[in-house]
């Protein structure tokens, strides 16, 4: 089966390439229907990764957040036309202790391994999860980032002490919003405090106890635990503010990705006896639980749908560039590509 792949060959430049798909028993062929642009995709598209990284990983098909329809399954375990979410993390071994998304041998789509910008995608059958009819496919397109949030909250519940009266979240973007929603679902009585820099974005956290600009946090502010959802150059300030304000023996979840090393006030980490843990990506069980969460919680799903900034009909390479350029200019939220190439 001849397949068309849309690879980024250099920043802002997609090219069409063709490859044969082997229709063997191990794969299910999925036609993407809705794809979501992530900040990680943008770092490649805009050439914001280090030159040696770009040289190593390009050409590559972008996008690791997508849903699609099954078009072929030789075993007929999936019905043709079945809506599925595609899991970008692909493990090649099992470990009784380490989760699949942390195994160094795992591959991740759109990170040195072709993502979902293809006419058809050959997926291992254990990398697909059926989508119930009541899940909006536009929301389904970014289940991956929702599953990362779900994964981190579950790890937090495992690692943190039992006092969870108040939690602070640094960040006012998509990731912070998703973490907040899942935290309120898991801990309905918790007081959430949002620390950000955009008043208009923080206004959307209607379920938070209060919001503060990071330069106007009250001196007497304290909380039990914290999540850092900032990333980039803001990591240093966010991480060290958290260390300053958090109560002793609190847990700190680091979720923001930084290209540079971040200096931390380790002296205060020691004095307060803090637990700091990192979370990245997600695996099959996280996706499965996230699909269940969305299908059973209409209110949460509706709140998450508010993150959709635009849906762009993509029928050509020019439309792909248009979608990525539009995503750069957006104030916030998610840019969704309706895949009609």
TrEMBL record:
As its record notes, the protein acts as a catalyst of: D-ribitol 5-phosphate + NADP(+) = D-ribulose 5-phosphate + NADPH + H(+)
Residues annotated as binding Zn(2+) are: 38, 64-65, 144
Origin superkingdom: Bacteria
- Which keywords does this Swiss-Prot/TrEMBL entry list? Metal-binding, NADP, Oxidoreductase, Zinc
Q: What is its EC number?
A: 1.1.1.405
Q: What GO molecular function terms would the record report?
A: ribitol-5-phosphate 2-dehydrogenase [NAD(P)+] activity; zinc ion binding
Instruction: Name the residues that span the membrane.
Output: none
| Domain Alcohol dehydrogenase-like C-terminal span(s) in chain numbering | 218-295
| KW NADP (keyword) present | yes
InterPro entries for the chain: ADH-like_C (IPR013149), ADH-like_N (IPR013154), GroES-like_sf (IPR011032), NAD(P)-bd_dom_sf (IPR036291), TarJ (IPR034710)
Q: Give the top-level enzyme category.
A: oxidoreductase
Say yes or no: keyword Zinc present: yes
UniProt lists the family membership as follows: Belongs to the zinc-containing alcohol dehydrogenase family.
Primary role:
Catalyzes the NADPH dependent reduction of D-ribulose 5-phosphate to D-ribitol 5-phosphate.
Q: What is this protein identified as?
A: Ribulose-5-phosphate reductase
From the broadest rank down, the organism's phylogenetic lineage runs: Bacteria, Bacillati, Bacillota, Clostridia, Peptostreptococcales
